[in-house]
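Q: Convert this sequence to structure tokens.
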Amino acid sequence: MIVPGPSFEAKVYIEERFLGEEEDLIEKIKHAEEVITQLNLTKCKNTIMGGPFLRGVSGGERKRVSIGQEILINPSLLFLDEPTSGLDSTSAQQVVTLLWELARGGRTVLMSIHQPSSRLYYMFNKILVLSEGNALYFGKGEETMDYFAGIGYSPSVTMNPADFLLDLANGVHMDEMDMDKRKEVKQQLISAYKINLDDKVKRDINDDHQTKDHDKDFGRWSTSWGQQFWVLLRRDLKQTKNESFSFIKITQILVMSLLCGLLWWKSSTADLQDQIGLLFFYSMMWGLIPLFQALFTFPQEKLMLTKERSSGMYRLSSYFMARSAGDLPMELALPFGFIIITYWMAGLKPTAFHFFKTLVVVLYTVLVSHGVGLAIGAVVMNFRSATTLAAVIVNAFFLVGGYYVRNVPSIIAWLKYVSVTYHSYKLLLSSQYKIDEMYACGPNITCRIGSDPTIEKIGLGGEIISYLSLTAMLVVFRTIAYLALIRVGKVSR
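A:
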């Protein structure tokens, strides 16, 4: 049998497509390197940004990285809030020069600035001077001093125009410091603007609006969904590996593992209540730790997410999926190690089947609890309120989990069916015991495990229902988190 190969046209299409993608990638890398060089970030381009507990780039470098992120997506409108604050004169000159070149290339650059040097001042095309929210001047930078001189305000000595404008904005003229005089100066400048410039500015704005084409395709993205996902995933992995695998966390889990292993050392079914307590501790511990680790994920990243999404850097779906996928290896590694240590030390059933069944339940509990934490954090977006709400939900899960209270009043018995702890505890019991299995319940006395009051109340059947319930929670809580994030930044999925 002969399989026909692709036609000549198909070969050309394939070659052009992959060649085009390669050229596009090379062009993007080249553009990124140019921005890094222009912002004088070459020395720190492989340095982590850092945070409150992790040292990274300096404050000035952080600001320049923030500006570079905006420039990378090639926006038609760029708004910057005091981009030169915290920078030395040379770095400030480099930043403003880069912005000036962008403006010359046809982009609109708006920025607020506080006391720029005279060298920077004369690079501005148009300047808006504000005083307590009122306009004092709007027009070309080189015409500013002539305008104020024309209405009777000129500096007594040669000075930086920016310093002179700042004095006028504060009502200071000719070294006059009296508060009443300051208010009078401000009012005169506001009145002069309304008389001389207000109508002219409005006419210019209307003329620009009529003559310029503002059509733009907002549905297009500079990169594909897959590219956004992989870039964000790599960033999340680099960012979270230091947090998740920190010395403190590893030590915490290691100490807890050894402590649990020693407390339940070589237990047996003769100590059924002790083993049941260990299984409930599994469900409780790994329902608590992942939840509170995920709780602050989105509140911590709210400012960054708002900024990046409002700039159109990526889709919300690519960010959310990358964040979820990036957390998996970090969140599952520590409970995996915890179970390996405690399972064999505690004397639970020493078969591969029972071990892996227990491990699967614990890891699945981690995923579901992590989703609960993401949902609470995304909905509340406030550290204190999120912690309070999470504490209430977690305690409710524990109380109806079936260990502390067996006879839950019917009016709130339904809570156990939405409790992660209840379903996890039920599955952990099923992973170790069978209803007809016998154990030593007293001297020379054997009993059915299914007759134990705790196990009898919870039941060892219905594993499929518990797995389906946890799956539903996994989907529902992460969906809630995603929908809650839509309101952050630009509304685009």
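The radius of gyration is 32 Å.
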